[in-house]
Automatic annotation (TrEMBL):
Protein keywords: Acyltransferase, Transferase
Domain N-acetyltransferase: start-end pairs: 3-158
Enzyme class: transferase
PROSITE patterns given in the database record: GNAT
Keyword Transferase attributed: yes
Gene3D superfamilies the record matches: 3.40.630.30
Enzyme Commission number(s) of this protein: 2.3.-.-
Source organism per UniProt: Roseomonas elaeocarpi
InterPro entries xrefs: Acyl_CoA_acyltransferase, Diverse_Substrate_AcTransf, GNAT_dom
Protein name: GNAT family N-acetyltransferase
Any one Gene Ontology molecular-function term assigned to this protein's record: acyltransferase activity
Length: 158
């Protein structure tokens, strides 16, 4: 099996959106995806660029992708490769594609002088957690991600 990992082009956006919807459905939250192609185009290819995409393809067909951004760590004084999403189609899981995607992201982080990679995982996703443990990933002590969205975000902004 020959897998090509490459930076996405705009023509990949329909596949990326399809994969995003499949991931949300897998997580039991299909209604969570409100993004459309224009949203992905603006974020991934607009100015300012907010996200980068990597596509995994086999025989010219996309079978997975990763999305990431690069926030800044005030504590470390360097950028961080923040992995937003990694998805491999179920038929291709268990063949090393996830590891290859994470390795490609790690190589990118090192080449760009970024301090670390970070990502979130659902506590119920035991197979993903076991995979991340095999990669040597750590869990920051005493942390819990928090967010504001919707009405709470607008209320605070007001």
């Amino acid at each position: 099996m020959t897998v090509l990992l490459r930076d996405a082009v705009e023509a990949d956006l329909p596949a990326i959106l399809r994969f995003t919807r499949a991931l949300a459905a897998h997580e039991g939250r299909p209604e969570a995806v409100s993004a459309g192609l224009d949203d992905l185009r603006s974020a991934g290819f607009g100015d300012p660029r907010r996200v980068w995409f990597l596509v995994a393809e086999v025989a010219g067909e996309p079978v997975g992708f990763a999305a990431w951004s690069t926030p800044f760590s005030m504590y470390r004084g360097k950028g961080v490769l923040s992995v937003n999403t990694v998805f491999v189609e179920p038929a291709w899981q268990g063949r090393g594609l996830g590891r290859r995607i994470f390795a490609a992201l790690a190589a990118r982080a090192v080449a760009e002088g970024l301090e670390r990679m970070e990502w979130s995982v659902l506590e119920t996703n035991r197979s993903a957690i076991a995979f991340y443990d095999r990669l040597g990933a750590g869990t920051p002590p005493a942390t819990s991600r928090r967010y504001l969205e919707g009405a709470a975000l607008r209320a605070l902004a007001a």
